[in-house]
Every structure is written in C-alpha cells, then in structure tokens.
Design a protein that fits this description.
Naphthalene 1,2-dioxygenase Alpha Subunit, Chain A, domain 1, 18 strands, 16% helix, binds FE2/S2 (inorganic) cluster, binds fe (ii) ion, globular
Length: 335
C-alpha cells in the first residue's frame, strides 16, 4: 500500500452504513458484516442496537438468541447483554456480581428511511443522509431485495454514476443503442458529495404489440460520500420516481447494496413494475461489475484510462481517494 494511504476499514469506519432494511429486523436478531467485522443487530425496547456477534461467555452465535426490552439474550446459557454491550444477567449465578470482562463490543445504531444504520467509530465523520422528501410520509417507497455482489462499494457507486454504459449494458431494458455519444455535462461539487444532470433518450422495449418508444428522461445524480447515491428520474412517458442506492462495505472487495425507490402512492402498480424492471437492469450491471478487475476500488488514476464522458465517476473516485489519503475531498488530486 502506498505511503500515507489509510486502511480501507480505518477510512470508512467513521461513516454510517446500512446493515439491514427495517422490515427485515423483527424480533429475531440479525447477523451483519461491515468492514470485516461480524455484528448482530437487534431491536431494543425503544430502538436498535449493534453489538459483537459472538457471546463473550463461550462464543455462541447471538443471532440464535432473542432480543427485547431486557436486552440480547444468548441461546446457549441465557447471559443477557444491554445495548452498551455490558452483560447484565448471568442466570447460572444470580447472586454473584457480573465479571467486568463479560461484555460485547457495541457500536452506534440508528434507524432512518427504512434502513438500520451502524457506525463503527465512536465519532461519526458525517451525519446520516437527509432526504427531506421521505420525511412526511407523502411518498410511497419500494425496497428491492438486498443486492449481495462480489464488488467493492466504490466500484458499485461508479457503475451507478456511469453515464456512458447506459446504451451498452442496458440494451433490452432501457438502453438506447442509437445514443452512444455522451454529451458534455457539468458536475457540481457539494460540501459532502456531487451532483450532475443528464438527459438520456431511454428506449422502452416493444411490449404487447406496442412498438418501442424513446422516452427522454432527465436523470439527476446526487452522490454523498462515501457510498450513497440518489437518482431522480423524470421521464416523459414513464412515472417520475427517485432511486436510492446505498452500498454497504462488507470488505474492501465486497458490498451489499440497499436499493429502494420512492414514488407517488397514487401510482398503483408502480412497485411491481419497478421491482421487475429494476432487477433486470441491475442484473445487467452485476455481470459487468463482478467481472471488473481489480475488484478493489482503485485509488489512483494510473491503472485505467479516463475520458471526458467519465466525468462523474472520475470526480467520485477523486473524492474517495482523498478520503483514503486523509485529505479534504476537494483537494487537487492526481489524474
Ligand atoms: S455462550 Fe452465550 S451464554 Fe454461554
Ligand atoms: Fe447500470
């Protein structure tokens, strides 16, 4: 590793990452893996908690235990832990003080926008994302099943932000093979991310005897460092909707992406249509992304060749490289 480069987990531990959809976390604790750390996430009486996955007593998997207002109870001998990780009860010796070493590592956990988020560092470097349109319940949301891909979170973000691939990778879903040129577009730098807007002549395939149609779609990309993207789609024929893609780094070479859309609740069949078409689109992306080498997100610009059409992924990579180097994201980078 080059001098001055921080390790992958040291760089990204201070950010909030999703580890589950809220709807997945019921009364049973759930396993999660974030930046190489095994966790168990569970519901307390009033919120969510994230602690080390394996019991301090005899290493049992706490996902096999139960959670509730009293804490997280191990299935092996019933030791019970609070959300700060401290053991509060050892049923086999009720009258004896709990040994101080009977504790789990514990991290900050929060629930927002239908996701359970964890930060592995005591001092988050940035707050949770703000998506005001989701605050008042006026929009409906539809989550996809988790995307569990052998690809780094950085590479995932780059494919989400890639304009030039649409006409190639997404042939047959919405890609328009006639539109190979990428017109120049601006990338706006935000304090903690990037924004860009492009107009793409999406090609909706022929269906039920209806010929294919071109749908000039305005796409607004908004990325928030390190791994969160929001894409607003304003088509002329299909429904306006917004897609949220948050890549959660399992390790330097693997991520899970939490992907959902918001839409106007009066569009009755949106959830089914979106899920079907988006899963087909994402499968096209997965095949390309999992084939890329190196799997890890490259830190420098020397190993690949960059052109003007890659402007948004380039600016993104510049920022993530700055984070790895411990520099401000708008510091001049190498190209
Ligand atoms: S291993 Fe968990 S209580 Fe014994
Ligand atoms: Fe794509």
């Amino acid at each position: 590793m080059a001098d001055g480069v921080r390790s992958y987990s040291e760089t990204f531990a201070p950010y909030w990452h999703p580890v589950a959809f809220s709807h997945e976390l019921k009364e049973r604790p759930l396993p999660a893996r974030l930046l190489g750390t095994d966790l168990v996430v569970w519901r307390t009486g009033s919120g969510v908690a994230a602690t080390q996955r394996y019991c301090a007593h005899r290493g049992a998997d706490l996902c096999q235990g139960e959670s509730g207002p009293d804490g997280l109870r191990c299935g092996f001998h019933g030791w019970t832990y609070g959300q700060d990780g401290r053991c509060v009860r050892i049923p086999s010796q009720p009258g004896v003080p709990v040994p101080p070493r009977a504790r789990l590592s514990a991290w900050s956990a929060a629930e927002r926008y239908g996701l359970v988020w964890v930060c592995l560092s005591p001092q988050p470097a940035a707050p949770l994302p703000e998506w005001p349109e989701l605050e008042d319940g006026s929009l409906a949301t539809v989550p996809l099943p988790r995307l569990d891909w052998d690809v780094s979170a950085g590479r995932m973000m780059e494919i989400v932000l890639d304009v030039a691939h649409l006409s190639w990778v997404h042939k047959g879903t919405f890609g328009n093979p006639e539109q190979q040129e990428v017109a120049a577009y601006d990338v706006e730098k935000l304090p903690d991310g990037l924004r860009a807007r492009v107009v793409y002549p999406a090609l909706s395939p022929a269906m039920d005897g209806v010929p294919p149609k071109v749908d000039r779609t305005t796409l607004t990309y908004e990325v928030r460092f390190p791994f969160t993207a929001r894409l607003a789609f304003k088509p002329t024929l299909f429904y306006t909707h917004t897609v949220y893609a948050v890549a959660s780094p399992v390790s330097e070479e693997k991520m899970q992406c939490f992907y959902f859309a918001s839409y106007h609740p009066r569009i009755r069949n949106f959830a089914d249509m979106f899920t079907r078409s988006e899963l087909a689109i994402l499968e096209q992306d997965r095949l390309i992304a999992e084939g890329q080498r190196p799997r890890a997100h490259p830190l420098d610009f020397a190993g690949e060749v960059h052109v003007q059409a890659d402007r948004l992924p380039i600016e993104y990579r510049r920022a993530v490289s700055a984070l790895r180097l411990g520099r401000p994201v708008d510091a001049p980078g190498q190209e």
